[in-house]
Amino acid sequence: MATIYVIRHGQASFGADDYDNLSDTGRLQATRLGEYLRDVGVRLDAAYCGQLRRQRDTAELALAFQPAAVPLEVDARLDEVRNDEQIRELLPRLLDGDPALRAVVDRGLSSSKDYQKVIAAVFNHWVSPQCDAAGIQSWQDYGGAVRAALRDIMLTQGSGRTIAVFTSGGTIATLVAHVLGAADADIYQFYEPVFNCSVTQLFYSGDRVSLSYFNDCSFLRLLGQQNGESLVTYR
């Protein structure tokens, strides 16, 4: 039996010119994650992350607390869903038939809650059979790549290993839905609630993989309370 800890990146910089940077809170979350893994005796044999800066920086901050150097491999298949691309191409198609969604967009998407409503609408359309948009990454290509990345990690690392995968909410949701055999229409329910720097644990043996737990941030609550820090965030 081997273990994969699937970890969402720390809080990024919502509303900034460059979202793909960890905020001060995000860097602190990643640091506390590293301390937690060290203190509970999780010794990693290998780690993976996507190409995004927020994913790699989270990995490097957390891995710095391991007792020995952990090789970190960058795999583009672990990147996040391309939200900006989907909003640009798919949102205009959805607005005419959804006055409530149009009202949200007309407010300017300056709040994270409004932005999340748009993500929900666009993502659910993207994974549906009704989505026929050309010129953007398809759900079939993205989902297939994420599943292949998991399969390759399992095959490469083999049995008895402890591995960390630093990625993003959409990728985590896709992996969890795949492991549970959930339908495409149900994937978003695993996407929306993912906390920054939360941990999802998978077990695998051979080509069989199972979910141990999902989206745990209890260590952030505990360490935040102990240190007088506010560490639990969605965005």
What does this structure look like?
It contains nine helices and six strands, in the order βαβαβααααβααββα. By secondary structure, the chain is an alpha/beta fold. It has two domains: 168 residues, Rossmann fold (3-Layer(aba) Sandwich), CATH 3.40.50; 44 residues, no CATH class. GO terms for molecular function: hydrolase activity.
Taking Cα atoms only, what radius of gyration do you get, to the nearest Å? 18 Å
Range of strand content: 15-25%
Strand order of the largest sheet: 3-2-4-1-5-6
CATH architecture grouping of the largest domain: 3-Layer(aba) Sandwich
Mean pLDDT: 94
Element pattern in H and E: EHEHEHHHHEHHEEH
The domain tally reads 2
Query: How much helix, percentage-wise, in residues?
Result: 40-55%
Termini distance?
34 Å
**Might you state the CATH topology name of the largest domain?**
Rossmann fold
> What is the count of β-strands?
6
Oligomeric state of the chains? single chain
- According to CATH, the homologous superfamily of the largest domain is Phosphoglycerate mutase-like
Largest sheet: 6 strands, mixed
CATH class of the largest domain, named: Alpha Beta
Q: What is the 3D form?
A: globular
**Class from secondary-structure proportions:** alpha/beta
- Uncertain spans: none
